[in-house]
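User: Let's play a game. I give you a shape written as tokens, and you guess the letters that built it. Ready? Here's round one.
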């Protein structure tokens, strides 16, 4: 039996660190594409948009401390972070709600290179069912439970209108899905053991509007140096 890699929280890695790991991974992949073999903590922190002390502390949770005078091995650090995030295996994803947003998500080419396989597209609209999107035929929402079982779906993505989101989430959970990415503008209620990540573009725009207003009022300050990708 292959030993299971402990999840970040099981290893005592803080949630804020977990949230920054994908940012570091993206920066490292960009460096790797440019043929950079090693990177200092200062340079990696600059690319990732955090301070170097925070980056070194984050990476120490992975057991990676770099080499004095050399820095971090880019390839190995990519592997370490990918392993910690569970990206060294493929995760099957089902998207429910194949409107403009759902179609855009399905057509995003980056999932396949990052360990995610779009296994199913589902919608309640009969006029959408049967459409070909990103090489997949859109199925009816009635098949959700069967699809979760047949495709071993690990992550459910909800891109429906707000009114339908909780019902879809409930069905995902009842079918055994314990990780949900929610794009609907509503807070989902889930039982313990189910992880929900919410992506609300309107909230992000409102936060940017706040900062724009402060800058126009002449109140820009050090707090603007913080980034949404860099939780404390």
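Assistant: Ready! My guess for every position:
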């Amino acid at each position: 039996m292959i030993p299971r890699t402990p999840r970040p929280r099981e290893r005592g890695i803080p949630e804020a660190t977990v949230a920054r790991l994908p940012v570091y991974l993206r920066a490292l992949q960009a460096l790797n594409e440019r043929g950079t073999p090693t990177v200092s903590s200062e340079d990696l922190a600059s690319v990732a948009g955090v301070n170097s002390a925070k980056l070194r502390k984050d990476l120490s949770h992975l057991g990676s401390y770099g080499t004095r005078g050399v820095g971090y091995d880019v390839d190995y650090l990519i592997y370490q972070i990918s392993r910690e995030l569970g990206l060294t295996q493929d995760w099957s994803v089902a998207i429910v709600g194949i409107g403009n947003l759902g179609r855009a998500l399905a057509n995003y080419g980056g999932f396949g290179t990052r360990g995610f396989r779009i296994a199913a597209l589902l919608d309640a609209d009969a006029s959408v069912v049967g459409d070909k999107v990103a090489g997949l035929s859109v199925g009816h929402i009635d098949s959700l439970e069967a699809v979760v079982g047949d495709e071993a779906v690990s992550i459910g993505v909800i891109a429906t209108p707000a009114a339908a989101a909780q019902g879809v989430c409930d069905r995902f959970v009842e079918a055994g899905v314990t990780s949900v990415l929610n794009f609907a503008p509503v807070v989902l209620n889930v039982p313990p053991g189910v992880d929900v990540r919410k992506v609300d573009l309107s909230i992000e725009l409102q936060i940017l509007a706040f900062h724009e207003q402060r800058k126009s009022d002449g109140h820009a300050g050090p707090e603007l140096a913080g980034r949404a990708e860099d939780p404390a």
